Amino acid sequence: MVVLGGMTRLTRSGLSMTNWKFTGRLPPLTNEDWLVEFEKYKQSPEYKRVNKISIDDFKFIYWMEYAHRMWGRALGIVFALPFYDFLCKGYITLQLGFRLSGLFALGARQGLIGWWMVKSGLEEPASKYAEPRVSPYRLAAHLTSAFVIYSGLFWTALSIVMPEPPAKSVSRDKGAAKVKRLAVLGAFLVRITAVSGAFVAGNDAGRAFNTFPKMSDTWVPEDILNMKPLLRNFFENTSTVQLDHRIRTTMTLAAIGGLWCVLLSSNNPRWRALSQLSGQFLRMIAFVTLGVSTLQSYVPVSLGTAHQAGALTLLSLMLLLNHTVRRPSMSLLKTLPPVVKTVT
C-alpha cells in the first residue's frame, strides 16, 4: 500500500479523481463516463497550469489513484473479517483486541487523511505563479500515519510470535538495556528522516537540486532562510527542506553505523548475534546510495518508489532490533538467575 501510494504521487495521479464518495464508487465503464471524468479533471488547477494531458494519459493516472483508494478499502476488509472470526473463536485476548481495534481505527482515519490531503491540491493556489500541489503538511501527515499503522501492525505481529525477548539472566538483560538505548535512538532517527522525506516529496524538493554532496555549486544554498517566520523554511522552503533531509540522513547513517560497531566489538555472545541484525548498516549505505541515484536522475518513478520502500524496509529492521532487545516482563525477570556461567 505504501509503495502504491508512492507511485501514485510520483505519477501525478493523486489529483485525477476530483470527487469521491465515502462508500466508494465504480470506475468509468464507457467512453461517455470517461469523458465526464476527464471534463471534471480539466476544471482542476493541476490540469490548467501544469498537466494538460490527453484522455489516454488521464485514464492511466485515474486508474492509479482508483487502485490506491480501492486497495485501502480491500485492506480494511482483509483486516476486519479475520479479526471478527478470531474474536468469535476466542483467539484474541482483551489486550490484543484493544490494540487491533486501535489499528483498525487508524486505518479508517488514514482514508480520511488521504481525502483531506487530496482536497488541498484541488484548490486554486494563492499565487498565479504557484504550482498546484497537495499541502506538504497534509502529505507528511498521510505518509507518517501510514508508517505508524505499519509499525503498529509489525510490532503486534512480532509480539504474538515472540511474546518475551530472549533472556537467560538478569545480568544479560541489563546488558541488552544498554543496546536498547542505542537502538531506540536509531529507530527515532529513521522515523524523523522519513518524515523529512515526506516534506521533500510534498515540496517537490527532490528536483530542486540534483547534485551530491553539494547542492548545485554550494554546500549551503543562500536562500535557506528566505521565508518568514523562520520555522516555515524547514517545511516549505525547497532548499532548506532538501538540506534538512540530507543532514538527517547522514545523522541516521552515523547512528546505525555506531550501533553496528558497538555490537560487533562486544564480547557478549548475544550482542554479537544482534550485530548480524544491525548489519542493516550495510543496507543503510545501499539505501543512501539509492537516494542519491534518485536525486541525480531527477526522481524517476522507479527509483523514487524504491527509495520510499527502502525507508520502510529500514524502519522494519530497526523495529525488529528494538523488539528483540526490549525489556522482559516482570514475571519473566523473576524466573531468571542473576548470572549464567558460560561453559567453554
UniProtKB/TrEMBL annotation:
Membrane topology recorded in Swiss-Prot or TrEMBL: Multi-pass membrane protein
GO biological process: heme A biosynthetic process
Cell location: Membrane
Keywords: Heme biosynthesis, Iron, Membrane, Metal-binding, Oxidoreductase, Transmembrane, Transmembrane helix
Transmembrane helix found in the keyword field: yes
Example GO molecular function: heme A synthase activity
Cofactor(s) of this protein: heme b
InterPro entries: COX15/CtaA_fam, HemeA_Synthase_type2
Pathway where this protein functions: Porphyrin-containing compound metabolism; heme A biosynthesis; heme A from heme O: step 1/1
Membrane-crossing residue ranges in chain numbering: 70-88, 138-161, 182-202, 251-269, 281-299, 305-325
Cell inner membrane as UniProt keyword: no
GO cellular component: mitochondrial inner membrane
Reactions catalysed, as given in the entry: Fe(II)-heme o + 2 A + H2O = Fe(II)-heme a + 2 AH2
Protein name per Swiss-Prot or TrEMBL: Cytochrome c oxidase assembly protein COX15
Organism of origin: Coffea canephora (Robusta coffee)
